[in-house]
Structures are given as C-alpha cells and as structure tokens.
Design goal:
The protein has one domain. It is built from three helices and two strands. By secondary structure, the chain is α+β, with helices and mostly antiparallel strands. Helices cover about 50% and strands about 20% of the residues. The two termini are about 15 Å apart.
Length: about 70
C-alpha cells in the first residue's frame, strides 16, 4: 500500500537449485542442520519441500523477488 515497485525478477532457478541442494543434503545426512527452515516449517518439512519443488517445476507457484520503496 503506497509502495513503488523498483524491480521484479523471477527466482525460479535460484529456488529450484537451493531447495534441490537442501533436499540432497537432508537425504544424505538423515538429519537437518541445527538451524534452518525446518525449525519454522515443522516435522513434515521434507514433505513440504518435496511438494514445493514439484509445484515450482509444474508452474503452480512462482517465486519472485520484488524490490519496492516508499515514495519520497
């Protein structure tokens, strides 16, 4: 409300790579790191991660970065 959008950019490739690496690390180590998204997202984080990746790949969701500022 009242913000001016400066830039927008798709973060699809970044998100796919980031979460792919996360998923790979978790499947190898069998336990999450001491700090991370799993603490916020709960015990079924791995399931949510899998669903999120699938939804990005099938274009059901699209991660975007939006830079906005208050008007001067």
């Amino acid at each position: 409300a009242g913000f001016e959008i400066q830039t927008t950019s798709s973060r699809k490739e970044f998100a796919l790579e980031f979460f792919r690496k996360w998923k790979q690390k978790m499947s190898v180590s069998k336990s999450p790191p001491p700090l991370g998204l799993h603490l916020v997202m709960g015990e079924n984080f791995f399931e949510k991660l899998t669903n999120f990746l699938e939804n990005i790949k099938t274009r059901r969701v699209a991660p975007f970065e939006i830079i906005a500022k208050l008007p001067e």
